[in-house]
């Protein structure tokens, strides 16, 4: 069995933190040969979708009390080869956001390969449709009060109604660009004009949850079923708990409410071909659904002692074999 991972350049991946590396190692552990390429190496030729890819040999890594530790370099590359995507049993699209033109074009080529029987994780069409902020809106009954709008008057009314809110850019990631605003703050209207680019771009606003100081939970799901979770606690003086913003990961269990949320999402995710997903939950509320390049595997494995990447790989390979 051969698996292809489409990611950012290998020099940008941090093996002790990156879920893509964890999945590559899980693929090796399951007996697969791992191939790697950047999405820009995809091409269509004579009706086939191909890629200039390289085989990878990964060095072993092990968890320590301080986190994951591995050698440097952590991989060895083979010679690049032009390969049809039909030669891979699984193709992983794991390039980080933003979903820009290059991402969109790569997803379009992957969608063509999918029509030829290639299994892509996650489904290319759904990667483009399931915006990580907007996709949660279809489960609004599981969310705090939320508005998405470019109209400053509507946003201003929402802030005045809920008094304390969080504003999120729709293409943001890792907590970047997320700000907290209150109805009492000076310059609120100017802030709304700024985040909407003078009412040209919609922004998501949600009622602020004070419980976020206790952290928000990242739950990873494979084929709609949870494989593990971590709590991410914000650093002092910040409300953003994203690990990229300095949040601290903690071991945690799934609550009954977490299981309720996962069950509500399971079948819609399966229908959409979203086989590997990370959802964010604050207290009892669903916050986001992350589909492009979900993270958290390393932290779940390290803190919880759960072989999360192996579980993901096992479930996806079983589904692929059917």
Automatic annotation (TrEMBL):
A GO CC annotation given for this chain: cytoplasm
What's the cofactor?
Mn(2+); Mg(2+)
Q: Which UniProt keywords apply?
A: ATP-binding, Glutathione biosynthesis, Ligase, Magnesium, Manganese, Metal-binding, Nucleotide-binding
Task: Specify the ATP-grasp domain's residue ranges.
Answer: 136-317
Gene3D superfamilies membership:
3.40.50.20, ATP-grasp fold, A domain, ATP-grasp fold, B domain
Query: Which pathway does it take part in?
Result: Sulfur metabolism; glutathione biosynthesis; glutathione from L-cysteine and L-glutamate: step 2/2
- Pfam family membership, one: GSH-S_N
Please give the catalytic activity noted in the UniProt record. Answer: gamma-L-glutamyl-L-cysteine + glycine + ATP = glutathione + ADP + phosphate + H(+)
- Coiled-coil ranges from the UniProt annotation: none
EC number per UniProt: 6.3.2.3
Quote one Gene Ontology molecular function term.
metal ion binding
Q: Which PROSITE patterns match?
A: ATP_GRASP (PS50975)
Does the keyword Magnesium feature in the UniProt annotation?
A: yes
PANTHER family given for it?
A: GLUTATHIONE SYNTHETASE (PTHR21621:SF4), RIBOSOMAL PROTEIN S6 MODIFICATION PROTEIN (PTHR21621)
Task: Give the family, as the similarity comment puts it.
Answer: Belongs to the prokaryotic GSH synthase family.
What the entry lists under HAMAP family is as follows: GSH_S
Q: From the Swiss-Prot or TrEMBL record, give the protein name.
A: Glutathione synthetase
What organism is the protein native to?
Answer: Candidatus Synechococcus spongiarum SP3
């Amino acid at each position: 069995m051969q698996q292809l991972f489409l990611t950012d350049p290998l020099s940008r991946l941090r093996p002790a933190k990156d879920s893509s590396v964890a999945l590559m190692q899980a693929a090796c552990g399951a007996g697969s040969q791992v191939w790697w390429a950047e999405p820009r190496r995809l091409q269509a030729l004579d009706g086939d979708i191909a890629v200039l890819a390289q085989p990878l040999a990964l060095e072993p890594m092990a968890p320590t009390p301080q986190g994951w530790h591995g050698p440097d370099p952590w991989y060895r590359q083979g010679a690049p080869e032009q390969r049809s995507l039909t030669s891979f049993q699984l193709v992983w699209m794991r390039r980080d956001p933003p979903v820009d033109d290059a991402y969109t074009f790569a997803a379009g080529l992957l969608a063509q390969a999918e029509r030829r029987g290639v299994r892509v994780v996650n489904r290319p069409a759904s990667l483009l449709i399931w915006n990580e902020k907007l996709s949660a809106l279809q489960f609004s009954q599981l969310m705090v009060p939320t508005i998405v709008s470019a109209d400053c008057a509507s946003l201003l009314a929402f802030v005045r109604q809920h008094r304390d809110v969080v504003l999120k850019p729709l293409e943001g990631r890792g907590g970047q660009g997320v700000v907290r605003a209150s109805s009492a703050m000076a310059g609120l209207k100017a802030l709304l004009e700024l985040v909407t680019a003078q009412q040209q771009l919609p922004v998501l606003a949600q009622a602020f949850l004070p419980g976020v100081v206790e952290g928000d939970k990242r739950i990873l799901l494979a084929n709609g079923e949870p494989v593990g979770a971590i709590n991410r606690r914000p650093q002092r003086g910040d409300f953003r708990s994203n690990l990229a913003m300095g949040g601290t990961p903690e071991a945690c269990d799934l609550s009954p409410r977490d299981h309720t949320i996962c069950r509500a999402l399971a079948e819609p995710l399966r229908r959409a071909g979203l086989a590997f997903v990370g959802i964010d939950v604050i207290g009892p509320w669903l916050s986001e659904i992350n589909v492009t390049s979900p993270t958290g595997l390393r932290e779940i494995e390290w803190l919880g002692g759960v072989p999360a990447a192996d579980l993901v790989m096992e479930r996806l390979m079983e589904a692929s074999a059917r």
